[in-house]
C-alpha cells in the first residue's frame, strides 16, 4: 500500500503527471519509488513497475540512478521459492537518508537516528525533572545528544521530527500550549532548527502515534482510524481516508477534553469532567488504589499483576469511563479501527474486551459497521518516536 503524507498528494499509485517536464517526472518517480521501499520494504523491479504504474525502462533508469548514488542496492532474496533463478530484490540503504526522531514526554525525552526503511540506527533517552523540563534545557540536551549520536553512528540527520504532548501549529512547529510540560507559546520548530541547522517539523504526539500505526503498526491497511493515548493526559490522532486529520493549522486531537462528566473533576483546561480526568494516568492510579503521582513503573506493574484476572473489578468504573468517551469518538469519526496506545497498552485483556463490548453495544455507528475494532498498539511506547521519524521523512525522501 502506498501512503502519502503532507503536500497535496493522496493515496494510490503516485505515477508521474502527464505533461510534466522530464526533470520533474524523474524527481517524482524517484521519490515515489523510495517511498514504496521505505514503507513496504524490498521488492523486485517488476513489482515496483506494477505498483507504481511505470514501464520497465523507467524503473530501470530510476533504480540504476539510485544504485549509482548509493541509495539502494540489489541482491538475491534470502529465501527462494520455486524453480529457476530468482529475481533480484531492490533494497534501500538505511544510512543513505537518515532523520532524527525526538519524543518529548512529561517525564522523559527519547530520540533516535532512523534510516530509510524505518530502521532505528541508534537511540538515547533521559529523564526530565522540573528544572530540566524548560524548553531551553530540552533544546540544549537534544542538540548535544544529536551530536553524540551522529558521531557515534557516523551519520548525519537530514531532517528532524519532534513529538510534543500539546497543541502544536503544524506549519512552523509553534507549541501554543503543552500544559503537562508547563510550556506556553514556544517556537520549538524555529529554535531547534536554528541549533541543529536542518529542517525541523513538530507535531502533536497523538497525531504522530496515529501516523506511526498507519505506516508501521496494525493499521497499515486501514484508511480510517483513531489513535487514543494516555500519559499524564489523554490525546487523540485521526487518520481519515488515508490522510491525517489536522484541522485549522494543525490544532486538532484534544480528544481528552471531551466533557464526559459535567460537573466532574476540574481540569487544567478550565473545564470540569473532561475525559482525561476520568481515564488519564491519575484516574488510573485512583482506580488501582495508588497515589495519583505513583511512578509509571509501579502503575504498569500493578496492571500487569491483573492480567490473569477474568474480571479485574477494581477497573470496572475506569472501563466504563473509557468506553463512554470512545462511544462519542466512534459515533463522530466512524473509524474502522481504534488503537489504544501508551499506558492503555498495559490494560489487562479482560478490561479491553469489556470496553470493546460496551462500545459495540452502545455506539450506533459501531453497530452499523458491524463492530468497530478496538485494539492495543503493537508499537507500544515507541509509537510516537516512530511517528516523529515518519514526519521527518516526508520532505527528506523527496530530496534524496
Overview of the structural elements:
With 400 residues, this protein is of the alpha/beta class. It is built from 13 helices and 16 strands. The strands form 4 sheets. A 5-stranded mixed sheet has the order 6-5-4-7-11, with helices on both faces. Strands 14-13-12-15-16 form a 5-stranded mixed sheet, sandwiched between helices. The protein has a 3-stranded antiparallel sheet with strand order 1-3-2. Helix 4 packs parallel to helix 5, helix 6 (205-216) packs across helix 13 (383-399) and helix 10 (316-333) crosses helix 11 (349-362). The model is unreliable at 1-17 (pLDDT under 50). This is ROK family protein. Residues 1-13 have a biased composition (Gly residues). InterPro entries: ATPase_NBD, ROK, WH-like_DNA-bd_sf, WH_DNA-bd_sf. Residues 1-25 are annotated as: Disordered. Pfam families: ROK.
